[in-house]
Amino acid sequence: MRKKLLRCLAGLVSCCLLAACHATSNKENEKKPLVYTSFFPIYDLVKQVAGDTLDVRSFMPANVDPHMWEPTAKNMKDLSHADILFVNGANMEHWVDKVKHNLPNLKVVTLSDKIRLITYRGAAAMGDFQYMTKINISADEVYKFEFGHTHEDIMRVCFVKKKPEQSVKDAIAAAKKTMDQKGKLTPQESEIAVRENTVYALEMGHVSGRVYFKVPESGEWYVVSDRISERLLPYTLQTKSKKLLEKEDVLTSSTSGQDKITYDPHSWLSLNNAKFYLNYIYDVLQNAYPDNKTLYGKRRFQAIDKLTDIQAHYAEKFKALEHKEFLVTHYAWEYLAREYGLQQYPLQGLISTESPSLKTIRKAINYCKEKKINTIFYETNQPPKEAKTLAAEIGNGKFVDLTSMEYVQPGKKNETGAYTRIMAQNLHKLYVALGGKENESDKN
C-alpha cells in the first residue's frame, strides 16, 4: 500500500509539474507582442527579421486572392489586439482604409512607401484629354506618331489649327468639344488626311508601329491626345524621316484635373524592393521593441545578404542572354522585369481574375512567333488552361508556373525564408525559358 501511495504521489507531482510547464509555456506565448501582416510575402519578410520574438500572423487567409478579399467583423476584432499591421500598399490591400477608420490607434506600416512604384494613368475620359502640344508644320510634308511596344488597343487624338490671337484657354475648350467624339478607327501604317473637329482612334499593335498624318494648311497646330506618353504606351511625334518634331507642350495632365493614377501593386516581386522592405521592417521593429534591436539587426543583415547574392547571380545570367521577352498570363512581373532589363508581355491586367479576349490571344500568338517565345508562364495555384492552350497554338510550346505569392494553398507555408527561396526558383525558371543553361544548383 505504501508503494502504491508513493507511486500515486509521484504521478500527481509529475502531472502538476507538466501542467505548470504547459501553463508557463502558454503564458510566455501570450506575452509575445502580436504583429499582423497583410498576406504571405509580407508575413515571411517580417518573420525573417522578427524570428520567434513576436507572434507574427497573416491577416488574410493564405489561400484567397488578396485582390478580392474583404475582412469580416471577426477579422477586425482579432486585429484590434495587435501592436502593428504591416501591409504592402500600392492599392494591394484595398481594405486598409477600413482598418484605419475602425482601428485608429493601430500602427499601420506601408512598406511600399519606401520604393519607387510603377504607375499608369490610362486614357482620359470622353470629352477630356491628357496631352496637348503645339507644333509648327508644313502642309507639304508627312509626319507621324511613332509608337513603342504597348499592350494598349487605342489612343484617341485630334488636331486643332491655332487661330490668330487665339488664347491657350480657347484652344483647350475647342479641343475638349472635339474630344467628346468616339473617333474614327485608324489602323497602324495608315495616313490621316487631317480634318479639324475630327477624332482619330489610332489602333495600337503589340510591337512598335506608326500612324502618319498630313495637315491641310501650314502653320501652328495643336496635337491633342487622350494619353500622355509613358511606359505603358510610349510615343513620339516625328517627321517621316524619323526626326523628332520640335514642340511646345501645353498640357501634360487631364483638363479636369481628375487623372486616376493606377499603381502596379506587385512591388514585392523585386529583390531590390524586398531589401528596402526588410530595412523598413527592421526600423519599425527595433523602435517598437528595442530590447531585441541587436537580434533584429543580425537577422535583417542575413536576409538582405541572401537576396544580394541571388541578385548578383542572376544579373550576370540575364545580361548574357540574347532574348529578353517573356509572356505571362498575369500582369505581375513588371518590377522584376525592370530590375533585370526584361520585357514582360501580359495576357491579363493587374488583377489575376480577368480573362484575356480572343483578340488578345491572337496578338499574343503573333508576339510569341515574332520573338521566338516557346514558354508561357501562368500563376502557381491557378488553372493552367489558358497557358496550356496558348502553348499548343504556338507549336510545341511549354507552360510553366511562376509564383507571385499573392496567395498560397494550405500547407504550403514553409519555414521562414520561403519568400527568398521562391524568388530564386522564379528567376531560375525565367532564365531557362529565355534560353539560359539548365543548372540544378539554381533551382533551390
State the end-to-end CA separation.
Answer: 63 Å
Q: What's the pLDDT, averaged over the residues?
A: 87
Content of β-strand: 15-25%
Question: Main β-sheet: number of strands, strand sense, barrel status?
Answer: 6 strands, mixed
Give me the side-by-side strand order of the main sheet: 9-11-8-13-6-15
Number of strands: 20
Oligomer type: single chain
Structural class by helix and strand composition:
alpha/beta
Q: What proportion of the residues is helical, as a percent range?
A: 25-40%
What is the CA-based Rg, rounded? 28 Å
Number of helices: 11
CA-based shape: globular
Low-confidence runs: 22-28
Tell me about this structure.
It is built from eleven helices and 20 strands. The chain is an alpha/beta fold and 444 residues long. Among the domains are: 1-26; 120-262, no CATH class. A six-stranded mixed beta sheet has the order 9-11-8-13-6-15, with helices on one face. α2 (40-50) packs across α6, α6 (271-288) runs antiparallel to α7 (293-319) and α7 (293-319) runs parallel beside α11. The longest helix is centred in the N-terminal third of the chain and has 30 residues, at 2-31. It is globular. The chain starts with a helix and ends in an 11-residue tail after the last helix.
